[in-house]
Specification:
Bound molecules: 2,5-anhydro-1,6-di-O-phosphono-D-glucitol, manganese (II) ion
Distance between the termini: 50 Å
Strand order of the largest sheet: 4-3-5-6-7-8-9-10
Radius of gyration: 20 Å
Number of strands: 17
CATH architecture of the largest domain: 2-Layer Sandwich
Length: 339
Amino acid sequence: MPIGTTITEYIIEEQRRIGSVSGDFTALINDVVISCKTIASAVRYGSLVGVLGAADTENIQGETQKKLDVISNNLFIKRNEWAGHVAAMASEEMTDVYHLPAQYPRGKYLLVFDPLDGSSNTDVNGAVGTIFSIMRRPEGALGEPTEDDFLQSGDHQVCAGYALYGPSTMMVLTTGHGVNGFTLDQRIGEFILTNPDMKIPAEAQDFSINASYMRFWDPPMRRYIDECLAGKEGPRRRDFNMRWAGAMIADVHRVLCQGGVFLYPIDSKLRAKHQEGKLRLLYEANPMGFIVEQAGGLATTGEQRIMALQPVNLHQRCPVIMGSRNEVERIISYHLEAQ
Ligand code: AHG
Ligand code: MN
Ligand code: MN
């Protein structure tokens, strides 16, 4: 690889390694990268360009959209719809599958994304990001893609990644051969490989959960966190540390860099709303789960591997427990014991 490898060079090397020649995938990633650079710019200028605050609209989940949710979604669509690599798209901010305008050629990939994860952080200048997942359209599918085409388990992802708009803008990517992190060099406008072959330490001190929901948790989750909180004096015989950024991307990125577990479990409050979790399977849990597994960690609902779940609709939710292998295995064993 050249010194200061760019993300495009990295993807081209990947394609050569697997013997793919069409260049379609490289071109698609390029468009995704440009989308994220554009969103990064809007996020960075914030109030100076009037993009903060609510948009006075709601998405399919009944959440009030931020202006930046809508802007990021539109930027992503416009950048990725024309080039002929994508068959259709779906996102957190759109109720149905997005069909490409008639004049553009159709490609073989399905692109699913959360245009702005942690968007409530935009009001407080906190970290936010974009999550994306790429699948192939099922073999033999004809006509315009339907929702069914998107309902593939996470194991079918050919690529997943996220852009984190923090103090630096980073892009973290997997195509199923490990995880690599790139940092945007603002001076030249390119993502440069800075974190090759990211691996999550198996042991960890950090847990990341919204503890204000503690009274709603199921017994296995209570047990795990209670034991962490008991520290040196408790059954774990060591102290733990708690972190919660309010953006899954930022929390999982910390886990990727330093180890730990990120948890958004099912609880009685979500069940009362007939929700199977808070986070969405196709554009949050699956792509982040793919990255975590490729970095040597685990991603589970507590009872099942996230990437083995068969989705039944586009905006399906699921419990999320991901991160350092030993900690996640322990949480799984607590769920098994509770059955
Ligand atoms: P989004 O902004 O895309 O709706 O996602 C927010 C998600 C996730 O990123 C974060 O971890 C979680 O919601 C925070 O939820 P709580 O407000 O319940 O803590
Ligand atoms: Mn999100
Ligand atoms: Mn979002």
